[in-house]
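Workshop exercise sheet. Pairs work together: one partner reads the sequence aloud, the other fills in the structure field after running the prediction. Swap roles for the next sheet.
Pair: D.N. / O.F.
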Amino acid sequence: MSIPYPLNAATCQIGIIEDDLLFSNNLATYLLKDNCFSVCMQTNSVKQAIKYLNTPAAAIPDVLLLDIHLPGQMGCEAIELIKEFNPSMLVVMLTLEDSQERIHESFANGADGYLLKTESLSGIYTQVINMVQFKQPAISGAAFKTMVPKNKNSSPILSKKLTPKENGIAELVVKGLSNKEIAYQLNLSPNTILYHMKNIYLKLNINTRVELVKCSQKK
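Structure field:
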């Protein structure tokens, strides 16, 4: 069942494809708690979402929160199809699936983020806010750590383009720490870490933590 929501003055339209109705409703309610987001689509399958998006009056999401295990079609297999409605749409997988294979498959198919449902609603909200406002990829810490090489003998890059502090932060990112964990370890505010991360991405000409990990593997 597809449930379009009336639009308001929010700057970011959110779509949700999730077959757990209770979780979906709780998430939608939480996202609507202030004026940052408007939920423009809520449905339980890819088929229903495509049907809604093909209607003339459909509001196309800026950000789509997409479950993986859905009736009829896996969410990670439908990313390219859904993005045809808005190539700049940010698609964030929201799932209990934390296998390395599924995470890599999702990103390979065009996902822009990967969040686990085990996070709190406030954690999911914050991740999406950071993605929209600060261009930070929404990736749960547990999911990101599965992407970090397990070779403990490998050392981060790190680049002469970065300051010593930026190199230190980049090194902690490569080790799998979240921004919050880095802030705690370095006794800095989360906003300060976001500022440094933005500079790191700019100087290294990258956009995501995943790319930073790949940089660390280059000899």
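Discussion prompt: Residues 190-204 form the longest helix (15 residues). What would you look at next?
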